[in-house]
């Protein structure tokens, strides 16, 4: 079994990309702390000189100037060190976010669908942000603050072992108290994280579902769900902080008081003649000097405790199993025929497609019809490579799609889904997503061909109108036509239209039908249609029932078969004859 990578290994992998920047940052941070220690040695020296009766005032002035210079130099080192570590860290964070988002495009759609958008957003934005403290601060500052106290302690041990040990007593007790904060830390942090995720999900659900909430008068109950999640989130943190509060306070009070032991025992040693006054003074000053860096170290323990969970969440995405595709295509399809061989597929544990076999010739028009929930869209998604089949294979031009790189395959397929997402960008840029190299003229031409030019021009800013999140400012039919224009611009040899005309009125449907005909000339087309009148000319119609292909043939052949297709056709015609809405 493959061993799981530790959080430290992930951090090292991420930080390793900018190791020279971090190394410079750590060295400068060490110099910063060392320069901050210099004044303590100088003060010790000044007191010794006073005790020895030095009367030359200029000697003291020079020492004071040296103290001031040490502080200034320390600050300069600190600023440069922080600048280096932040420069490296922000590019590392950008890289982690890029990898995470790239990963989402390579994992099966199921992972993204099964993880709420609130959770994913929380990981990609907030959680990744919280790695910043570790990389930009802990790495240089923790390392740099640990080294000087060690140096000082070694020096103290050289002066007097007893005093060195005494200076450590309150520090050790303070640290022990800090560790008390870690009792049940993982559990408490996980609980707080879970509650935050629940709050994020409740907020996203409340915002996304606001239309339904208003229409069905669910504002109170939905808002209640949100406030309950907010309350539980706050309680999780408050309860946890309450538990830590005593340990934290004891630690903050004890750690700085190194003099609590150094002063009385030092005085005793002077009285019994085992310690000189000069060494006593030096010990007091050095004992004070280790406090600052050690408190700085302690302030990071909380972040160090959290980092495991944070890295675990990000790593959880980065280690998701990807769609089974090679980096580079192993073979080249000889044409764009599509063959599904013994396909079985299920969402989670429930199989919804059973032994599907289909053959579509290159450049042919194919329709998939069947009752709602029979598995039509699932077949389209498998062909579009949004999921991997559980068994069986899909071949394009004689090549198993698992032997084709995802990038190359994606270029071959234009998929217009039932509910197409439009980015919160201009209509022009939304269409251009089909081909990022397309000129404005080509974008406008695609819009003309898909019958959406006129309505786009009637929008407030024409092609420069912002479509709004998920295309919220446009009607369902308008969104669909923009999606078709996007697919046209892609000019892929395989086109899948999943209920592409579902939202359109009969007039517009005729426009779209003719533009689709132009779009797919010479291409392999798969249309999923409820309105059977739109697919009567298809070269092949596949009838799906309960996850199985129950009939296939041309419109004429299927009518002669007297099967499910004929029943569906008669139902369709009778709606029309009764003056019902044929678009229903
Ligand atoms: N993401 C999913 N997770 C779990 N089950 C799903 C998912 N998507 C679809 N299903 C289920 O798989 C089955 C087939 O759904 P599919 O969307 O392929 O049917 P369809 O024939 O396209 O339906 P419609 O005509 O209503 O769009 C249904 O039972 C559906 O509930």
UniProtKB/TrEMBL annotation:
Q: Which GO terms describe its molecular function?
A: ATP binding
Residues covered by the ABC transporter domain: 338-571
Q: Which Gene3D superfamilies does this UniProt record tie to the protein? A: ABC transporter type 1, transmembrane domain, P-loop containing nucleotide triphosphate hydrolases
Domain (ABC transmembrane type-1) ranges: 23-306
Which membrane topology term applies here? Multi-pass membrane protein
User: What Pfam families does UniProt report for this protein, alphabetically?
Assistant: ABC_membrane, ABC_tran
Membrane-spanning segments: 21-42, 57-77, 138-158, 164-185, 250-271, 277-297
List UniProt keywords, sorted A-Z. Answer: ATP-binding, Membrane, Nucleotide-binding, Transmembrane, Transmembrane helix
Cell compartments where the protein resides:
Cell membrane
What InterPro entries does the annotation carry?
AAA+_ATPase, ABC1_TM_dom, ABC1_TM_sf, ABC_transporter-like_ATP-bd, ABC_transporter-like_CS, P-loop_NTPase, Type_1_exporter
- Name of protein: ABC transporter ATP-binding protein
Task: Tell me what organism the protein belongs to.
Answer: Ruminococcus bromii
């Amino acid at each position: 079994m493959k061993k799981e990578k530790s959080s430290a290994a992930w951090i090292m992998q991420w930080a390793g990309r900018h190791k020279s920047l971090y190394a410079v940052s750590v060295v400068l941070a060490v110099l910063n702390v060392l320069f901050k220690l210099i004044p303590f040695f100088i003060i010790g020296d000044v007191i010794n000189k006073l005790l020895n009766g030095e009367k030359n005032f200029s000697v003291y002035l020079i020492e004071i100037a040296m103290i001031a210079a040490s502080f200034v130099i320390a600050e300069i080192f600190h600023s440069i060190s922080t600048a280096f570590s932040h420069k490296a860290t922000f590019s590392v964070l950008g890289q982690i976010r890029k990898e995470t988002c790239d990963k989402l495009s390579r994992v099966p759609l199921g992972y993204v669908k099964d993880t709420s958008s609130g959770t994913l957003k929380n990981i990609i934005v907030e959680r990744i942000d919280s790695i910043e403290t570790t990389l930009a601060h802990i790495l240089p500052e923790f390392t740099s603050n640990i080294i000087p106290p060690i140096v000082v302690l070694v020096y103290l041990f050289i002066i007097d072992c007893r005093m060195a040990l005494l200076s450590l007593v309150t520090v050790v007790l303070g640290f022990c108290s800090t560790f008390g904060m870690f009792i049940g830390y993982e559990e408490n942090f996980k609980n707080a994280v879970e509650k935050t995720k629940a709050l994020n999900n409740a907020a996203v659900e409340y915002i996304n579902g606001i239309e339904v909430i208003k229409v069905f008068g669910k504002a109170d109950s939905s808002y209640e769900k949100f406030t309950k999640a907010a309350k539980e989130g706050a309680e999780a943190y408050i309860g946890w902080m309450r538990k830590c509060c005593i340990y934290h306070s004891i630690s903050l009070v004890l750690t700085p008081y190194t003099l609590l032991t150094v002063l009385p025992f030092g005085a005793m040693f002077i009285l019994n003649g085992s310690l000189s006054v000069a060494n006593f003074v030096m010990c007091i000053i050095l004992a004070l000097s280790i406090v600052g860096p050690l408190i700085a170290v302690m302030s990071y323990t909380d972040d160090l405790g959290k980092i495991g969970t944070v890295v675990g969440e990000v790593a959880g995405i980065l280690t998701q199993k990807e769609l089974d595709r090679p980096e580079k295509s192993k073979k080249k399809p000889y044409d764009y025929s599509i063959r599904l061989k013994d396909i079985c597929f299920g969402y989670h544990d429930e199989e919804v497609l059973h032994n599907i076999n289909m053959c579509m010739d290159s450049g042919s028009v194919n329709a998939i019809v069947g009752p709602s929930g029979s598995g039509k869209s699932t077949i389209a998604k498998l062909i579009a490579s949004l999921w991997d089949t559980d068994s069986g294979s899909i071949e394009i031009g004689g090549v198993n799609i698992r032997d084709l790189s995802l990038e190359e395959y994606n270029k071959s397929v234009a998929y217009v889904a039932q509910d197409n997402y439009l980015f919160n960008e201009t209509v022009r840029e939304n269409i251009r997503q089909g081909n990022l190299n397309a000129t404005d003229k080509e974008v406008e031409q695609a819009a003309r061909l898909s019958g959406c030019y006129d309505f786009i021009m009637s929008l407030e800013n024409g092609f420069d109108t912002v479509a709004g999140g998920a295309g919220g400012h446009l009607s369902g039919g308008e969104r669909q036509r923009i999606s078709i224009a996007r697919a046209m611009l892609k000019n892929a040899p395989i086109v899948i239209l999943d209920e592409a005309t579902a939202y359109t009125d009969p007039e517009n449907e005729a426009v779209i039908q003719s533009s689709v005909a132009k779009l797919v000339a010479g291409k392999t087309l798969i249309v999923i249609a409820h309105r059977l009148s739109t697919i009567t000319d298809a070269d092949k119609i596949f009838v799906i029932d309960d996850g199985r292909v129950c009939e296939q043939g041309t419109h004429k052949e299927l009518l002669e078969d007297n099967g499910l297709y004929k029943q569906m056709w008669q139902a369709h015609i009778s709606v029309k004859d009764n003056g019902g809405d044929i678009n229903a």
